[in-house]
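Protein entry
_____________
===
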Amino acid sequence: MTRKVSVLICMVVTFLLCLSPVFAAEYRLRLQTYYSPSTAAGAKYFAEQVKKNTGGKVEVQVFTGGELIASANILKSVKNGMIEMGQGMGHHFSELKTGTIESGLPMSWMSATEATLLYDERGLRTLIGKEYEKAGVVYLGPTWAASYHTASKQPIRSLDDMRKMKVRVVGATAKMLASLGINVVTMPPEDIYMALATGQIDAVVYGNAAEYKETKFYEVAPYINITPLINPITDTLIINKKIWDEMPSDIRVGIQAAADQARWYWYSWGENESLNVLADIFKDKVTTFSEADQKELVKAAVAVWEQEAEKSPEAAKGVKILKDFAQAIGRLE
């Protein structure tokens, strides 16, 4: 064998080896998350687990917030096949009457364990799944995001302290705080840092200590109140129904297992990292609300729940699940 022929054979073999992973995948799916490139670890972990669980038969390419479509359009884009999978938040989707309940009404669950009980044992997952089915997609389940703590320029030890401030907060939590006489301000995340730096706002409800470190909000809001207003905010994983129905059962089992595995990934990292951040960056600047203030928050939250219950019979069922649970654990009389 001549040297030229040997070199040519090596080149061909190398080329085929490089191509083999592409041909090994039977499904190549696009997933868009609403998370930014620096915070999309949960979606990337899900993609890794899908590939592992399906023996490489399914490859998921992750796109971050806004890369392909607006976050509010993730549901309709998965339905019509523009993308095959999505990670979003229920309250982003105007099509859903239960979206805000799914994402987390204020004070409705105060730990990931409580959220798990509500979703898996008390029927919330089944209820939400049926709503996504009506919307034309397949619901793979929730993934836990982060707890909702409050970072501020001055310490917040009470609701009275908060009433002296302008607080950036969104959604149902904004409704709850506004009903308590707190001046709430709505703005996109990209405007928060400058608003805090210039005094346009005095506090922000955005995430946990780890996220305040990642966003550098701690530089202009060095205090944190760690009484959660909801814990955790909840995301959703969905897949195109036509593709799902065409997949063999073993592939579907692998994808569903990956969704279940991904549920705790980002939350667990964030909660652990928050302990380090609280001990370091927020050292001696951590406060909580009193028991009396927490009861006032719950009372105001329930009024918001009742507003959500009026949206549809399914929303009313979801709120009843929340109320029954709150009464069972003594949070609500």
Notes: Residues 148-231+285-329 form a domain with the D-Maltodextrin-Binding Protein; domain 2 fold (CATH 3.40.190.10). Residues 3-23 have pLDDT under 50 and may be disordered. The first strand starts at residue 27 and ends at 33. The chain has two domains: 27-145+233-281, 148-231+285-329.
